[in-house]
Amino acid sequence: MEELVRTNKNYPKRSKVSSAQKESHENYGAIIAHSNNWRVIACRDGIQWIIQKGVLSSHGRVWRGKSYCCTKKALLRNWTRLSGLCVPHKLLLLYENIVLSPTNSQQEAQAKQPLHAANDRICKAAA
């Protein structure tokens, strides 16, 4: 199954994090793509991409995980299935597997490339 979460027992135990470092926070630092009330982030450990939906709460918008993906194929499929939106261009530029990705900051730099014609084809096919 493509969507199984890969874990690495060698990761150090997490220390307490500030609210802005939490994956559910509006200003989380590893946002890959954002569209309407949906976004994709890289998890803190860099082992999966998370599709999140924004939900309003008494403390503002909070992001809730809806799908956890290690492969680009699963990420693109689940984005369309859950959000009903066209795939954001930045997701098309991701590596095939998050475990093979160099770093999240390099992914963010790569995602700033010019628009790709494949996104137009995906959106037209979805319409």
Structure description:
- The protein is an alpha+beta fold.
- The chain has one domain.
- It has 4 helices and 4 strands.
- It has helices at about 70-85, 90, 105-110, 115-125, and strands at about 30-35, 40, 50-55, 60-70.
- It has a 4-stranded antiparallel beta sheet.
- A hairpin with a 2-residue loop joins strand 1 and strand 2 (about 40).
- The longest helix is centred in the middle third of the chain and has 12 residues, at about 70-85.
- It starts with about 30 loop residues before the first strand and ends with a helix.
Tally of strands: 4
Morphology: globular
What is the string of helix and strand elements? EEEEHHHH
Q: What percentage of residues falls in helices of 4 or more residues?
A: 25-40%
- What ranges have pLDDT less than 50 throughout 5 or more consecutive residues? 1-16, 113-122
Assign the structural class, choosing from mainly alpha, mainly beta, alpha/beta, alpha+beta, or little secondary structure: alpha+beta
Q: What is the CA-based Rg, rounded?
A: 15 Å
Q: In percent terms, what proportion of residues is strand?
A: 15-25%
Mean pLDDT: 75
How many domains comprise the coordinates? 1
Biggest sheet: strand arrangement: 1-2-3-4
Count of helical regions: 4
End-to-end separation:
28 Å
Largest β sheet strand count, sense and barrel closure: 4 strands, antiparallel
